[in-house]
Amino acid sequence: MTTEVAAFVEFATNEEQAPDAPNTLLYNQRFHVSEGIRRGDDFGRLRCIPTNPDKNTWSLTKQQKDYVRQTGLHHLADIDRMVIDHALITALVERWRPETNSSHFPSGEGTVTLEDVAYIYGLPIEGPLVVGRSFPGKFVAPLCEEVLGLTPRKKIDYVGITVKFKWLEDNFKATELEKMKNDKNYNDLEIRATRAYLFFLISACLADLYRMLTNASRWNAEKKIDGDQKDDDTGKDEGHQLKTPTGPLQLLQIWAYTRMSIGKCPAPKDSWKGDIQFPLFKTWRKRLPKTPPLSTVKEVRRQLNNLKPGGFIWQPYSEYNKKFHSKLSKVDRTLISSSTIGSSSVTTHGRL
């Protein structure tokens, strides 16, 4: 066992987090990835796949862009591809605790909050809640028929309650919509294609990130199967650790860069003081090289093991002054002036 792994295991499995410890907050230790690492089942680096629409595939019409703007997701639609540091995400997964929906570090807890979503992705975080009923897989096909006008095939185009992105791309991408330009129902087809596009964008929501981190941090010694396998009706993962985390990984990576000197994040420069753009995804897209050096799991584990209270920026957005706010549109100023923003994203304490 390497020094980095030993230090991580010692922190993650101390007496108060022992699998059979009564009344402990972290009651699910026996099924956590850190328990697997403690037993010598080190999974190495995960293969991470961020979900964001390919701009070449989804070339929106002017009307579609207007529809997206009406939803408040237009900033999200502007996101370009970003190189994901797989080792960084892997190490953060190992620190994630589903019991508290937060990452546990030697000096405290930290988690991605709605404030981060507003600043990094430019998403609206106030207003009526968008919720829906959970439903079994048998309702997926008729629901797609209703909102998209097409019926996906079970176990081919959708599994459980998850519709495959490839099916959406194959049927609703720009080239397919262009073929229907002269169709008398073109306006309806344009709306349906926009709905399919929005399926990609809503995968950036905070709940999806929490769900992915929870699935990826799961470990089961008895069922070492690929966590990507899902039950047909529930869509739930079973057994072993999720090998290919997907979702808003850019959000998680920028959250880490904003708060810590972590991975291969470039050292701050004087020019950074004047390069702030909103949302902050655009800022980091400029700061990071197109082919950045990637870190190793061993390196990031060591960095997190040695993290001190002063090495974590508790309120990273306080530096954005009135001058920065004055450059924003009225709509964007509303986003980051939300009453939801202001609560700390980190709880400091002694060792858990």
Features:
globular; mainly alpha; two-stranded parallel ribbon; MAIN-like; about 350 residues; about 40% helix; disordered C terminus; four-stranded antiparallel β-sheet; AminoTfrase-like_pln_mobile
Question: What ranges have pLDDT less than 50 throughout 5 or more consecutive residues?
Answer: 224-239, 343-352
Count, helices: 16
Integer average pLDDT: 81
Q: What kind of sheet is the major sheet? A: 4 strands, antiparallel
Domain Aminotransferase-like plant mobile: 72-204
Pfam families: PMD
Protein name: Protein MAIN-LIKE 2
Region (Disordered): 225-244
Please explain how this structure is put together:
With 352 residues, the protein is mainly alpha-helical. It has one domain (3-340). The chain contains 16 helices and eight strands. The strands form three sheets. Strands 2-3-4-8 form a four-stranded antiparallel beta sheet. Strands 1-7 form a two-stranded parallel ribbon. Strands 5-6 form a two-stranded antiparallel sheet. Strand 5 and strand 6 form a beta hairpin. Helix 3 packs across helix 10. The chain starts with a helix and ends with a strand. Residues 224-239 and 343-352 have low confidence and may be disordered.
